[in-house]
Amino acid sequence: MRAVTYERATSAQGAAQASVGHKGAKFIGGGTNLLDLAKLEIETPSHLVDVTRVPGLDRIAPTPDGGLRIGATVRNAELAADPRVRRDYAVLSRALLSGASAQLRNKATTAGNLLQRTRCLYFYDTTKPCNKRVPGSGCSAIGGLNRTLAIVGVSDDCIAHHPSDMAVAMRVLDAGVETVMPDGATRTIPIADFHTLPGKTPWIETTLKPGEFITAVTLPKPVGGRQSYTKVRDRASYAFALVSVAAITGPGLQRFAFGSIAHKPWRVEDAERLKGADAIADRVLTGARSTDQNRFKIALVHRTLDATMRGETA
Amino acid sequence: MKFDKPAGPNPTDRMRILGKPFDRVDGAIKVAGQAPYSYEYHDIAPNAAYGVMVGAGIGKGRIATMDTRDAERAPGVLLVLTHRNAPKMFGQQKKQNTTSQESSEGSEEAKGAHAAPQLQGRDIKQHDEAVAFVVAETFEQATAAAHLVRIGYSAGKGRFSLTEGARNAKPNPEAEDAHVGDFDGAFAAAAVKVDVTYTTPNQSQAMMEPHATLAMWSGDQLTLHTSHQITHWSTEGVADTLGIPHDKVRCVCAYIGGGFGSKLEVYGDAVLSAVAAQKLGRPVKCALTRPQIFNHTTHRPPTIQRLQLAAGRDGRLLAMGHTTWTGDQEGARGELATEQSRLMYGGANRKLETYIATLDLPKGGSMRAPGEAAGLFALEGAMDELAEALDMDPVELRIVNDVQQDPTTQDKVRPFSDRKLVECMRQGAAKFGWDRRNRRPGQMRDGSLLIGHGMAGGIRNNMVKASGTRVTLQSGGRVLVETAMTDIGTGSYTINAQTAAEMLGVPLDRVSIKLGDSLFPKAAGSGGSWGGNSSTAGTYAACMALRTAIAARMGMPADAEFVDGQIRAGGRSIPLASAAANGPVVAEDTITYGDLEKTYAQASFAAHFCEVAVSAVTGEVRVRRMTSAFSAGRILNAKTARSQCLGGMTMGIGAALMEALQVDERFGYFANHDLAEYHVPVHADIPDLDVIFVDSLDTKSSPMKARGVGELGICGVGAAVSSAVANATGVRVRDFPITLDKLLPHLPKVA
């Protein structure tokens, strides 16, 4: 890890300003992903802006329209345990608890989780080409080891997947990402527009602008329904999903978002008007481009969705 | 003491202290963080500089360009070692009578057998072999500067695929093949047969503590605190590499955070720390990074195994064929997967063949139960398939084919020293409730879960090694035990202390014990499951010598009894402590062996019974319960032995369901080189495991009457799991690990 300079931000706008004031600055929350990547020199920040002490960012509060506003630095463990989340947004609580380990959930933050980076093997190996790590160097995963990687929304430059569980639940809940710019301007980015597909620029993963700082994630008024998060994985805990399904179903209500099959949490709203798991899955996976190693994910999406719709898995 | 006749009654039979489930004598300091591991001797080397190894980024080829200027100029950097400035080092010399030396085990090994030269040229033989070693004032500076070493490679064409290599594989010179009777004729003529191929992947030992070394010179004397399973192998390995006499190197390895075979070899951390410490005139330490461990150090090589089993309608084996292919670097042995098939079951017509392909992947080595762990997956899996073909209970099939003498050695009758495989099967089956198993696959459901039961037998060859101990009766009556034996987490401290306490008739808390220093009497070390039995046999020998010395000093007969802190004979009883009233009494001895290992087949046995649940939706497999019965001669400590078995069973479940190094055949390396992507079981994967020890004593193994237990736990587990999966689903996966993508295409359509 390279030497870095460090400062603690005391306000959200101050954090945004600090990050543009230094070349190579990064915000740091729990550090559960950034520090690992920095040690391997996959991330090479020269300046860290610690946002964990910004007053107010660690709060969960109701919004005027009956929803919930989750501060950027609310820890995954706290969020999962919040009684309002457990009651009204159970899919979020379940997604969080299926991720990482208790120790990591105690550190990891809400905003940081949205920004966690792919687990593609080659992204982690600085001696190998990776367009996401070194633009233009090539994609080692295409034609290499890609069993866990994306099957939809892929490009010729990158087939990396987004590994977050929390973000998949946020997607099915229609969350919004609140931000502040260095000049104090604020906006809310719908979660659907927050993460991007790799295209020809796989190193760009969100629509955040330089210096733009996430202050909170908002959840709209509860929609009720049966909420589940099914995570399919190679071991019983402490493993990234091969496929996950965040679901909200009820009378006149069906919403599904899928994890670990794309560069972003994957949801196809059009498909939710269809009947039957296979029809929905077919629409969700339209244009899928799988490899010999990860083709099984297509069947896995069908089967897991089907079981979810029959209420067979939690 | 030479052990060349079966043991008669001896003081170990009292079992007042031996066998009892004592807590580890080193347990308290370990959980309190006070047991120093090799990287943690901060107090004795406060001025240590930090070394960071740079590993090659290609699997085969050459260093084309190397620029170390930025690294050398980086803050805090003291030294950058590369092939350009590294001293000449020496590797293994060809086996010739003139250069061979008597090893401590009494067998001949080539000079430099444990040597590990580093940085000897531009040629790259394996991914992550050392190409540079950066030393700086702090760990952070060294790590940062290591990234500044700029290397250009010209990649060569390597051989990285066992599937391809197997086509041109050669007979493996390290394996003992066997041809007994007329295999082909018997197999062709048999009524019932299976002919199936199993495959196992490369696996990593993935122990917790990384390989690490602190190197210090004093004049021409080198001291290494280094994480290694056998202190004299690391001593000889480093000395031979550097071309200095063995007695100029001292290796200390008091505590080891797991090895599983990986720490039987010397690596870049030890050699390069030693070189850098000499160049800089100050201590240097280095720990391999987690990604380096997966490619720089050894692993379990892959196998392809063809099993051909033929039986009569009564289940008796008529023909057993086990043909295996493995791959490794030139001169390395690969995975010897036919080992267990020599001894496990009868059958008059046998064919055991082993082929090896030369691969340019990282060098293979030993990993817990090398040979058996992979071989039993295939043999016991095929036995389960044979039972299915016979419509016979798999336990009964094994019992029918039990033997009490070596079924493969032809030229002489070689009985087993103590074989209780059938007892393991019966006791395990009873405790598990095997009689309630539904033999027809795919019949048991629990909601959306498919439930299945499977079983397998296990065997691990028993090995013994020469081992020495020094025992001192100190003034005040305390006993000090010193041996170069290591404790890699197994319980060597505890069982050697128990042995001394038992032999000298003192409570366990009167014994102090020191291990893991090459200045102590040369010992068996930890490998091949020989350590527990062999090192306690060495302690037994030293204690017998001490008893003789004490008895002589006190005018007691040689056969005096040492019990309750007293020496007793002929109605006389004197306190043991009084023998040291005028100064300590010291005795040292080494246990050596005759040929009982050859005249008797010695092995430990196991039987595993397993229940799995397979999601009918996703194909995810989870083990729900497992009962395993073991026969390993005398159990020296019921608690530490059970822990060894639990660890082996856990590792076996991991091998069955998740462990695999993923080979990138373009770059020639294992790409999943961290513990996020190389999966081993977590707590949630492991249910309550039930361990049974079947009563046994092995009078041919050593005066301790014990056998190896450390590797036994893993032997056969994978086949029990795979057979349970087959019973649950009707799908037989013959390719480790059994991940859901291999089951999914065969599972019934949901709803």
UniProtKB/TrEMBL annotation, chain A:
Lineage of origin: Bacteria, Pseudomonadati, Pseudomonadota, Alphaproteobacteria, Sphingomonadales
Keywords: FAD, Flavoprotein, Oxidoreductase
SMART domains referenced in this protein's UniProt entry, alphabetically: CO_deh_flav_C
Record-linked PANTHER family: ALDEHYDE OXIDOREDUCTASE FAD-BINDING SUBUNIT PAOB, XANTHINE DEHYDROGENASE SUBUNIT C-RELATED
Name by which UniProt lists this protein: Xanthine dehydrogenase YagS FAD-binding subunit
Entry's Gene Ontology molecular function annotations: FAD binding; xanthine dehydrogenase activity
Enzyme class name: oxidoreductase
E.C. designation(s): 1.17.1.4
InterPro entries with a match to the protein in the record: CO_DH_flav_C, CO_DH_flav_C_dom_sf, Diverse_Substr_Oxidored, FAD-bd_PCMH, FAD-bd_PCMH-like_sf, FAD-bd_PCMH_sub1, FAD-bd_PCMH_sub2, Mopterin_DH_FAD-bd
Domain FAD-binding PCMH-type: 1-224
Automatic annotation (TrEMBL), chain B:
Top-rank lineage group of the source organism: Bacteria
Pfam families (UniProt xref): Ald_Xan_dh_C, MoCoBD_1, MoCoBD_2
Xref: Gene3D superfamilies: Aldehyde oxidase/xanthine dehydrogenase, a/b hammerhead, Aldehyde oxidase/xanthine dehydrogenase, molybdopterin binding domain
Keyword annotations of the record: Oxidoreductase
Coiled-coil region: none
Disordered, as annotated region: 85-121
Stretches assigned to the Aldehyde oxidase/xanthine dehydrogenase a/b hammerhead domain: 32-157
Annotated InterPro entries: Ald_Oxase/Xan_DH_a/b (IPR000674), Ald_Oxase/Xan_DH_a/b_sf (IPR036856), Ald_Oxase/xanthine_DH-like (IPR016208), AldOxase/xan_DH_MoCoBD1 (IPR008274), AldOxase/xan_DH_MoCoBD2 (IPR046867), AldOxase/xan_DH_Mopterin-bd_sf (IPR037165)
Gene Ontology MF terms in the entry: iron ion binding; xanthine dehydrogenase activity
Enzyme Commission identifier(s): 1.17.1.4
Protein name: Xanthine dehydrogenase YagR molybdenum-binding subunit
Gene source species: Sphingomonas prati
